[in-house]
Amino acid sequence: ELEADNNALMNNSDDLAVQFDEQQVTLKEVQDAYDQLLEAYTEQEEAYNELQGAFEKQKTDLDTAQKDKKKLDELKGKVRVAVDKHKAMEKHVKQLEAELAQAKKKIVELRERAGGSTEADDGGVEGI
Question: Distance of CA 124 to CAs 14, 23, 104, 105, 121, Å?
């Protein structure tokens, strides 16, 4: 009976050794799978960080572009005001030139009535 128990224990021991070896193989497979997942996670994290950096750069570039556009719009407004002032000055100059021509014409008429010279040699018409 002792021998039977001994044989049973030996068989049980052999079975346990086989199970232990199988569990070691399974544990190694689980460890390999974990290492692969960890590596994939690390790669994903690096890719995410790169994307986050690119996003931040684009956001900064967009903010800069919006500020530049605002400055450009302000400059456009100032240019419009300057152009409007220039046009008004041109109109005013034309009006003054017309008034000057009328004044010259009036001077010539007055000189003709007074019997004087209509020439500009005395600084009259042209000197005005």
Answer: 136, 122, 9, 11, 7
Tokens representing 125 are 């018409």
Residue 4: C-alpha distances to residues 7, 13, 36 (Å)? 5, 14, 48
DSSP 48-94: HHHHHHHHHHHHHHHHHHHHHHHHHHHHHHHHHHHHHHHHHHHHHHH
d(CA 58, CA 101): 62
What is the total residue count of the chain? 128
Global confidence as pTM: 0.48
Q: What is the pLDDT of residues 25-40, one digit of tens each?
A: 899 999 999 999 999 9
Give the type of residue at 99: E
